[in-house]
């Protein structure tokens, strides 16, 4: 039974190997499909993040370019707000201004102002070293006040011009310079009618001196040089400058705001910078000249949001997509900025890709499991079939062998009975009928045994040259004696034709064909036309005048235990193995057996024997 299972198991093993290879190939395709999809999604993400990073870098650069004018103006004008811009020159922070008044108890500005109020500039000049710049300045201030009291306009203009010339020519300590100028302008306003433009220049805007140097307004000077003043002096001067500006209709609110704001933020910056950087404290800084830098305060999150809106307008991002920028704790070079994309759309696509791969892998696994189950069932079914065939064959062999002995005994006793009572009135033909039925049953048993031996491959053929004409003639005579209808043989071309084969098997072959011709016919006599031709192979055609075989049954009649039910004919005996045995015999001889033609007028069988 194992030998019978081996071809099937080999075929199943080969099929399983092919199936496994196919499933692995499909899994490889699905795996590459998933990896390709993941790479595409990752490439799309990287491209969007790179676009966003470049857009953020451009936005930072534009913000600094837009702040450049503010930086230049704030550098020379302390009245302008400088909290949102940054400037370093020669390694020193210029903006935002970080200077603040000193903590001191001497209050020199207030003392000088009080002395000028109490004594006047000429008295103070007498106390100074003759010829010193400060003594000369006090003298010029006194001459101006005398000219103002005298009321002569040319003298007023001349003395005031001399004072301005001295200011542009000599740089005095800032406390004396600022306090003296403020006191003189207060006297000028209190005792005369100064020109508004002149007061605007001296209090706020500054003016160009006659010697070429610039004279700054006291508002700017006080703010620019805060570190030179004691805190209470700074507050004192700030109040008097604001009051004088109000009296002379000169703007001072921005001066008050800047003085109130206090010192600006001190930024720890390592110079020189190699490239622009975004600092964690909100400054975007770029290199500017030697040991210098420019910067502007920015909102990284705000700029990122603008970039996101821009990308949405261009169709690059969906409504729910978000951007975030990653920074170091101190500062990050712009070239190293990382923008992360948070995209539910891409996440959903990645999840769908992974789910699709898992589903396909699951289907492959189920297909493989189903295939294994089917293979197991097929092996089990084939094993059961082989076992059934073996048991059937063993049963048939056993039963057939067990029937041969009683059949032989029945026939012997029937022959004895026929000899003793033959011709006796009342005996009739019963003994001969018993013999006939025993012979029929014997042939049936012989057919079954032959089929069983052929199926198991246990028939040892004895090949010899068998004359066809004599063989067929003998078969027709033996078979005709077993049937009531006479058999008429019409040979054609059989003379001298021999085939190489087993005589016993060939006898059984033609015996089954002739027996079927006698069994399946309603005509009498039974006509058999046998033709033979040799052209290398030997082809024998055997035709009868039976009822014929339907076209759809031409192949099925050669199957095991297959019998046709023909209308108009009584039920026929037999095992249904006759034609199956005939085809097996022809296969054993290397030939073939087929139905060449069939109709209600009869059937033609064509037997092809290979050349000897």
From TrEMBL:
It is an enzyme of class 2 (transferase). The keyword Magnesium does not apply. One of its GO terms (molecular function) is phosphorelay sensor kinase activity. CDD domains: HATPase, HisKA. Keywords: Kinase, Membrane, Phosphoprotein, Transferase, Transmembrane, Transmembrane helix, Two-component regulatory system. It catalyses: ATP + protein L-histidine = ADP + protein N-phospho-L-histidine. InterPro entries: HATPase_C_sf, HATPase_dom, His_kinase_dom, HisK_dim/P_dom, HisK_dim/P_sf, Sensor_HK_Regulatory, Sig_transdc_His_kin-like_C. PROSITE patterns: HIS_KIN (PS50109). SUPFAM superfamilies: ATPase domain of HSP90 chaperone/DNA topoisomerase II/histidine kinase (SSF55874), Homodimeric domain of signal transducing histidine kinase (SSF47384). Its EC number is 2.7.13.3. The chain crosses the membrane at residues 6-31. Residues 398-612 form the Histidine kinase domain. This is histidine kinase. It comes from Stigmatella aurantiaca (strain DW4/3-1). The gene is phoR.
